[in-house]
Amino acid sequence: MEELPNLYDRLGAENLKLLVDYFYDLVFTDERLAPLFSKTPKEVIKNKQLLFLTQFLGGPAAYSELYGHPKMRARHMPHEITENKAIAWLQCMNKAVYQLPIDEQLKKELFSSFPKMAFHMVNREE
Known about the structure:
Layout: H1 7-11, H2 13-27, H3 42-56, H4 62-67, H5 72-76, H6 83-97, H7 104-112, H8 115-120
């Protein structure tokens, strides 16, 4: 049985880089999210996200090779992540996904991979 290409392969490295660029253009200007990213240089944040999303979407495990197991919830624990911030993150991701030059079905499938992860990061009540 032939294995179907994963999201990373169907999206492609160039589109994934575009996604990260579009996403952080929105995040860094969002009053709810920007403070979460104020202590780390933007290029470091974007590079880590690119490596993580590459792995998360089925591509090479570059994030794990450099930083170890993602353990994303544990890594985000020092930051106040509320349900409203998870929603804001998803709103930015949705806008970024829908800017990509890919077909609508792939946009829907790509975006649908994020809500579960976003709400898993919630670690504080409002």
